[in-house]
């Protein structure tokens, strides 16, 4: 049996949201399978309507979604040493954040088309 030490982060765990998108996201100018991807890049703008529904704007597309409460919370763990004086000793984990809500975007993105100037 494997035992893991899990402790609460100092100051309490942060509350995060899980973002679920249908389909595939590709970074522009990625140049094929050369790596890089979306790491460290801005995905888009997340807004909420007055009713609390999430709206995600990615490039020239808008996605409408809904907030869903998860049945079971998900813990985000950060790995560290059980004893700071022994960095090669057994691992201990710290709860960095808790995820209780996910934002679900299951419809196809709609293109944002700027309105053309009317001719007089």
TrEMBL record:
Which Pfam family would be a valid example here?
Ctf8
Q: Which UniProt keywords apply?
A: Cell cycle, DNA replication, DNA-binding, Nucleus
- Main site of residence? nucleus
- UniProt keyword Nucleotide-binding present: no
The entry's localization annotation reads: Nucleus
Q: Does the keyword Endoplasmic reticulum apply?
A: no
Give the family per the record: Belongs to the CTF8 family.
Name of this chain's protein:
Chromosome transmission fidelity protein 8 homolog
